[in-house]
Design brief:
The chain is of the alpha/beta class and 231 residues long. The chain contains seven helices and seven strands, in the order αβααβαβαββαββα. It has a five-stranded mixed beta sheet with strand order 2-1-3-4-5, with helices on both faces.
Length: 231
């Protein structure tokens, strides 16, 4: 029987061994990765009034910095910020969210980065529907702080987190209304900023003083109304 022959590897223009994405990824996965590199990487941030009230340290600027850092460290390109400041997560009719979803539906978004999944929203059903829509549109969703990446498969804990986020929103809203109601009963101011005609005392932020210049305008408006001068 003939001995097997060893043929040495030869390298040349026609025999180069090339390493490509095909060596480690199935064709469909390679296609997704190539497509994401040419599409928008959406960096979404949100802060609601309830978040501010509860002292949550997730300012829009901090979220943007964290998302940009993550995106650059992981070589994501075509970064674009979408931010909703002062919008509740229970309602998905937010300007920047809707703008981002328009790009998603048009097939222009490859990756969406959020700091935490509750930045997307605090409505269990709507958040789940949007995650499903991202999957249908071939959009990869990453939560940088939660360690969630849809490219790695679904996380069974995500739906539980979404339910907890919705409960948190309801509880925070209830507490905020309760605190404001208590302040009103004590005769304290209900807003942080002084209304027109007053100014905050430099010694006591809860004390409002008459702003004489603005007060003259207020008195004039009231007098004009009494005199029958309408708008």
């Amino acid at each position: 029987m003939n001995e097997p022959q060893n043929f040495p590897l030869q390298f040349g223009k026609e025999n180069d061994i090339k390493v490509s994405l095909q060596a480690v990824l199935p064709p469909e996965r390679e296609s997704i990765m190539k497509g994401q590199n040419s599409k928008i990487t959406a960096l979404y941030s949100r802060l609601s009034k309830d978040d501010i009230f509860s002292g949550e340290s997730q300012s829009i600027s901090n979220q943007k910095l964290d998302l940009e850092k993550y995106a650059k460290e992981h070589n994501f390109a075509n970064l674009r910020h979408y931010s909703d400041d002062g919008f509740s997560g229970v309602d998905f009719e937010r300007p920047s969210w809707q703008e981002m979803m328009t790009e998603v539906e048009a097939g222009n978004v490859g990756v969406i980065l959020v700091r935490t999944l509750d930045r997307m929203g605090r409505n269990y059903l709507q958040t789940g529907l949007h995650r499903e829509r991202f999957h249908e549109c071939g959009v990869r969703l990453i939560s940088t702080a939660d360690g969630y990446d849809s490219a790695k498969g679904e996380d069974d804990l995500v739906p539980i987190r979404e339910i907890m986020s919705e409960w948190y929103a309801r509880d925070t809203s209830r507490k905020a209304k309760s605190v404001l109601h208590a302040k009103g009963k004590r005769g304290e101011h209900m807003t942080n900023a002084a209304v027109y005609g007053y100014k905050k005392s430099s010694d006591d932020k809860n004390l409002w003083l008459v702003d004489n210049e603005a007060a003259n305008v207020v008195r004039r408006v009231f007098q004009m109304t009494i005199d029958g001068n309408g708008i």
